[in-house]
Amino acid sequence: MLQRARANLAGVDLHVASSMCLNFGSSVSLVVLNKVVMDNHGFKFAATLTFFHLVCTFLLLRLAAALGIFEIKRLPVRDVAKLAAGTMGFITFTNLSLQHNSVGFYQVMKVMTTPTVVIIEALLYQKYLENTLRLSLVPVCLGVIITTVTDFRLNAVGAGYAIAGVIVTSFYQIWSGTLQRSLDCNALQLQAYVAPLAALFILPFVPLLDNWSTNDLESIWYYNFAPNNLSLISVTGFFGFLVNISIFLVIGRSSPLSYNILGHCKTVVVLLSDYVLFHRPFTFKSSFGIILTLIGVFWYTNVKLERARLEKEARERTPAPSISDTKQDILEEEKIELVTSREE
Q1: 319: domain range?
Q2: CA-CA to 155 of 20 to 30 Å: which in 72, 144, 166, 292?
Q3: Is the residue at 1 inside a domain?
Q4: Sugar phosphate transporter domain spans which residues (predicted)?
Q5: In whole angstroms, how far apart are CA 285 and each of 9, 107, 261, 282, 310?
Q6: 167 within a domain of the structure (yes/no)
């Protein structure tokens, strides 16, 4: 197994590795910070937080463009709008799920994105998974079911947001996988369009999803925007910017599979934070459900990596035409042309 891991890691692109490290660090930090802001600092306004993160992403990208880090490229708004709608739903339902659920349930439900993508691709795009990979998804689903029924903060509203988040995230990943290539743009150029469009899309829904009533003491108008609360919320905006651009960087430079594998590593760290930082009660059933989910996740990942390795080795074994053969073919073609010209 160690030799296989070394073979899979051989020839890793440093650009891909740096993008994955950026996404790993920023995503884990954002989940923990958002949960601290919502639970410990009482900012229970997930849609407003989503809007703030998108605005921060847009403003920081404009600053980066002004500093010459990248050049803004004109893109067709109609093509980008679908991904922007997916971004809005992906971030909104993710934050709402995090607000209403425990970190453990929130993260385990996100693992369901992988089998959901498989189902969507089979139903809508006629892309079918081989039997071994289907079998590896069984413990994933069983583990999620066990974790769900044993979660200490399980509620209908939180479960609904989590399920909606899984569905929207699945479509979001499918769409973002090919849009950079079809539009011939990089991650920063694409996000410079997606972020402001997604912010505009969610703006009308913010007062509906969050409490913006001027007559309610629990509304956002009566929230204590003390310097420490405001500073922490601002920090989440910066990490939201890093997460938004790093998602496109990872998928654009590698593949949705690599992004999902990275997500599995984040799952382990985030689940541990639920026990350490947010005092999730340790029970055998809930822990067994989480472990079963992770077993299925790593089984699925190992099978996919093994398939990719075998395909790479098969391509390498296929002999490429040598330079001498190529020159010989050119000489033969020139002889044929010369004979033909003489006959004419």
Answers
A1: 13-212+221-343
A2: 292
A3: no
A4: 20-300
A5: 35, 17, 25, 9, 38
A6: yes
Convert the pLDDT of each residue in 91-131 to its tens digit.
Answer: 888 888 888 887 777 777 777 777 787 788 788 877 777 77
Judge whether 154 lies within some domain.
yes
C-beta of residue 172 within 8 angstroms of C-beta of residue 90: yes
* Rg of the chain taking only CA atoms, in angstroms: 24
Residue 61 lies in a domain: yes
Crossing angle for the helix pair 256-276 and 14-35, to the nearest 10 degrees: 40
What span, in angstroms and rounded, lies between the C-alpha atoms of 187 and 51? 20
- What DSSP element (H or E) covers 208? helix 206-209
Compute the distance between CA of residue 115 and CA of residue 166 in angstroms, rounded to an integer. Answer: 10
CB 274 within 8 A of CB 130: no
Whether this prediction's pTM lies above 0.70 is answered by no
